[in-house]
């Protein structure tokens, strides 16, 4: 008797020109070696252990106000103190810094100076009516 062969898929998926093959349709995704499966199981166990530990701390009735997460601390440090590998000074970023950093200061300086000069001119002409006249 002939051995039954595995059914061949009727339609072979071909990825679009500008996209890659989704991992669910990649045959290598399901033909993993025992070593890869063992590493995946270890990662899953580690993640489950960390999740359980966090939930135990979260639901502790005598917990401190903040639960320290070392991974979050490392991520925050890397995000805030290590910006230079991810930032490049270009004319656009320099102009943006000047516009949003120095621009508002110059705007308010000009506005206050203009108002002060106008008030001084009215005082010298004797046309200035003082608001909040408390003395006389």
Automatic annotation (TrEMBL):
Q: Which key words are in the record?
A: Electron transport, Membrane, Mitochondrion, Mitochondrion inner membrane, Respiratory chain, Transmembrane, Transmembrane helix, Transport
The organism's superkingdom is given as: Eukaryota
Q: Where is this region: Disordered?
A: 1-36
Chain segments annotated as transmembrane: 94-112
Q: Where in the cell is it found?
A: Mitochondrion inner membrane
Claim: Amino-acid biosynthesis is one of the keywords in the record: no
Q: Which GO terms describe its cellular component?
A: mitochondrial inner membrane
Q: How does it sit in the membrane?
A: Single-pass membrane protein
What's this protein's family per the entry? Belongs to the complex I NDUFB4 subunit family.
Subunit structure, briefly? Complex I is composed of 45 different subunits.
Functionally, this protein is described as follows: Accessory subunit of the mitochondrial membrane respiratory chain NADH dehydrogenase (Complex I), that is believed not to be involved in catalysis. Complex I functions in the transfer of electrons from NADH to the respiratory chain. The immediate electron acceptor for the enzyme is believed to be ubiquinone.
| Name recorded for this polypeptide | NADH dehydrogenase [ubiquinone] 1 beta subcomplex subunit 4
Q: Which gene encodes it?
A: NDUFB4
């Amino acid at each position: 008797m002939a051995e039954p062969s595995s059914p061949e898929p009727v339609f072979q998926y071909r990825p679009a020109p500008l996209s890659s093959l989704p991992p669910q349709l990649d045959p290598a995704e399901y033909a993993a070696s025992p070593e890869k499966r063992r590493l995946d199981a270890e990662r899953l166990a580690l993640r489950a252990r960390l999740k359980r530990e966090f939930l135990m701390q979260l639901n502790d009735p005598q917990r401190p106000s903040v639960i320290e997460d070392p991974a979050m601390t490392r991520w925050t440090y890397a995000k805030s103190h290590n910006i230079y590998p991810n930032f490049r000074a270009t004319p656009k970023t320099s102009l943006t810094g000047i516009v949003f950093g120095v621009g508002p200061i110059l705007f308010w300086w000009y506005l206050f100076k203009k108002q002060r000069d106008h008030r001084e001119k009215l005082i010298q002409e004797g046309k200035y009516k003082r608001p909040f006249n408390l003395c006389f």
